[in-house]
Design a protein that fits this description.
530 residues, alpha+beta, 6-stranded antiparallel β-sheet, 16 strands, 18% helix, 23% strand
Length: 530
């Protein structure tokens, strides 16, 4: 491992302190907290590792998986209507493939909830049932489903509102309508949920892709929450002593082997797999991505809603973006409360308006207050965070000509690693350990990447200890790598050497995932078999 690679790896960790921290974006802003169906929670973007060899070749390695999660903290027993998506909303995944902070490719998802009004004969009357199912469910558009959820996906080339987009179609049959599985109601309704859900992974043809590289997959459905975070204690003023959080022996003490609290909840995932050559432009190999949800500007409550599903409101007018997510936790713990809805409505090209939140972060100071211990690095402004947060890291995921903006960036030139070989600390963790896995956070984000612990280390200055004064000075001579001397010196770190040990007491590496698309695990069932 060369000195330059060590330097880049250490700089990589710094991006996380600005872009993520102690949870993903669950209920992160006033508007989305009251509108959970359009609340984006996590965004993942990575080279597909299904079936790949140790060197990253074979299997699905030529593809990129995009996962956009929404509807946070779903209780598995949340019937009788469960967690249908909003037919009056527009869910989107955006990709910038030239570094100008404007989308070049957008995948648009629209949903329909088709009500059957299945009746039962009660005496001489035919009366519609009150549930979403009338019996056991096992197939696409199952006859026992009272509400069949379907969706369409369109791809838009160029700015998202300047084209109607072209539909993706099923490779077999050519239909542009895709079925969505009902949520995991329980084992009596759906005896084999993994098998049932797998029937809803659709092989698709994606228009506008290079010849022979236009085949992909889509899936939309409920999944088990895959993000490991000690959620309750974190937002209860970090209800754990500093000595506990600084002891490596407690790395998963609150997780109890992966049974952390939000793993008991579910989310809804919009998943798409696309050939990597369909996403790039010219010689640029770095693709930036983010997900949004939008609703119509005019939404009127119908005082006398008619019979049917989702008839309580009338929506019209232009689309208004209400949710945005690239790197995890930007809005939740970086953006100040007055500007959270503003950030959710913004676009990456306008991110200069949020610079102060990054260069003068409040999280280290807040941690000092709630832990009753001084943990905040002293040198401000944090120019290291500002540079890496907005442009990506030279040699890892920085495009040739980036416009400063917040998004998740993935360099497609790096091969994927098999799941078992992935370091939970991503690129930097592998580099510092002498590994070769360059396909993890912050170079994109995989489900296994433990962005929480990396973020906490960076936030309290642990990287200053790792770097040391000499390494920080050397970084100044590496083209494109931000100067660390003004904000990352060991003398500025109150916790000293112990800062590199901080964690949140749950371990992302213990969370169960699938080895195949869509990678996130089967959702928790609403009831078990007795």
């Amino acid at each position: 491992m060369t000195i330059r690679f060590k330097q880049i790896a250490k700089a990589c960790l710094l991006v996380v302190a600005a872009g993520s921290a102690m949870a993903s974006s669950h209920r992160e802003a006033p508007f989305t907290a009251g509108s959970p169906r359009v609340d984006g929670t996590d965004f993942y973007m990575f080279r597909s590792y299904e079936g790949v060899a140790a060197n990253g070749s074979g299997g699905r390695s030529d593809y990129v998986t995009l996962l956009a999660n929404c509807q946070p903290l779903q209780s598995p027993y949340g019937g009788p209507n469960y967690f249908q998506l909003d037919p009056n909303a527009l869910y989107e995944i955006h990709l910038d493939n030239n570094g100008d902070a404007v989308e070049d490719i957008t995948f648009q998802f629209r949903f329909k909830n088709n009500l059957k009004s299945i009746p039962l004969m009660i005496g001489s009357a035919s009366v519609p049932i009150p549930l979403v199912q009338a019996g056991a469910v096992a197939n696409l558009n199952d006859a026992n489903l009272n509400v069949n959820e379907t969706y369409e996906v369109k791809v838009v080339r160029g700015e998202r509102r300047k084209s109607q987009g072209i539909p993706l179609t099923k490779t077999a049959g050519g239909s542009a309508t895709f079925e969505k599985p009902v949520d995991n109601i329980g084992t009596k309704t759906i005896a084999d949920y993994p098998g049932y859900a797998a029937k809803h992974i659709h092989n698709v043809t994606i228009p506008g892709c290079p010849a022979g590289k236009d085949q992909g997959k889509v899936f939309v459905g409920q999944r088990q929450e895959g993000f490991a975070v000690n959620l309750g204690p974190v937002f209860d003023l970090v209800n754990a002593p500093a000595s506990f959080l600084l002891d490596p022996a407690n790395k998963d003490a609150a997780g109890m082997g992966g049974k952390h609290i939000i793993q008991k909840a579910n989310i809804t995932t919009l998943a798409i797999e696309v050939h990597k050559d369909c996403l790039t432009a010219g010689s640029e190999t770095v693709v930036g991505g983010w997900t949004t949800a939008s609703v119509r500007q005019g939404r009127l409550i119908d005082g006398k809603p008619g019979s049917g599903n989702d008839k309580a409101e009338k929506a019209g007018g232009a689309w208004a973006q209400v949710s945005r997510l690239g790197n995890p936790l930007v809005n939740e713990l970086v953006i100040g409360l007055p500007d959270k809805d503003k950030f959710n409505a913004s676009q990456p090209k306008d991110d200069a308006q949020f610079l102060t939140y990054v260069s003068n972060p409040t999280l280290p100071a807040l941690l000092s207050i709630v832990l009753g211990a001084d943990v905040a690095p002293k040198n401000l402004p944090r120019t290291d965070l500002l540079t890496t947060f907005l442009t990506g890291i030279t040699g890892i995921n920085k495009p040739a000509m980036p416009k400063p903006s917040e998004m998740l960036r993935l360099n497609l030139a790096y091969a994927p690693a098999p799941f078992a070989a992935q370091n939970r600390l991503g690129v930097a963790g592998n580099a510092l350990a002498g590994g070769t896995d360059n396909a993890g956070f912050p170079n994109g984000r995989r489900p296994k990447d433990d962005v929480v612990d990396i973020a906490l280390v960076a936030t309290v200055g642990g990287l200053c200890i790792i770097n040391g004064d000499n390494d920080a000075l050397k970084l100044n001579s590496v083209p494109g790598v931000p100067s660390l001397t003004s904000a990352c010196k060991p003398s500025s770190v109150p916790l000293g050497a112990s800062s590199a040990n901080i964690h949140d007491a749950v371990d992302q590496a213990t969370v169960p995932f699938l080895a195949t698309f869509p990678y996130l695990n089967t959702p928790n069932a609403g009831s078990a078999t007795y």
